[in-house]
Amino acid sequence: MNSDPSDAVDPISPIPATPYMLFAGAGLFDVWVYRPGDVLGLTCCQAEDLLNRESMLTRRIDLIFTREEPRTVKDARLIGEVAADRLGPPGRSLWPTDHTSLAAGIRF
Asked: 59 with 45: CB under 8 angstroms?
């Protein structure tokens, strides 16, 4: 989606809404907001070359939406956001991707 829930509407866009607003306005449910706890769920973006030592995630732009409202969301988590997830030889290890992955156990 590449649209953060907190993104502002582009004033020159012919559509007065962000992609996130369009999905939510179509009746889809953002699974992350149903998970317990107060983790921000930041998913983007590591350095383009993936060599940054510390995680640089500052935006929540990778999302899971459902058509039905979740009754419960368990184990919603990010995958690839901590230094231990880096791949490759010591001293030259890379992040697996510039975005994290998301996973969630959802009950309807």
From this structure: yes
Return the closest-CA partner of residue 32 out of 102, 108, 92, 107: 102
**Domain ranges for the chain:** 19-107
Q: What is the pTM of this model?
A: 0.86
* Per-residue pLDDT tens digits of the chain, which is 108 residues long: 788 999 999 889 898 999 999 999 999 999 999 999 999 999 999 999 999 989 999 999 999 999 999 999 998 999 999 988 899 887 789 999 999 999 999 999
Closest CA to 22 of 7, 41, 32, 39: 7
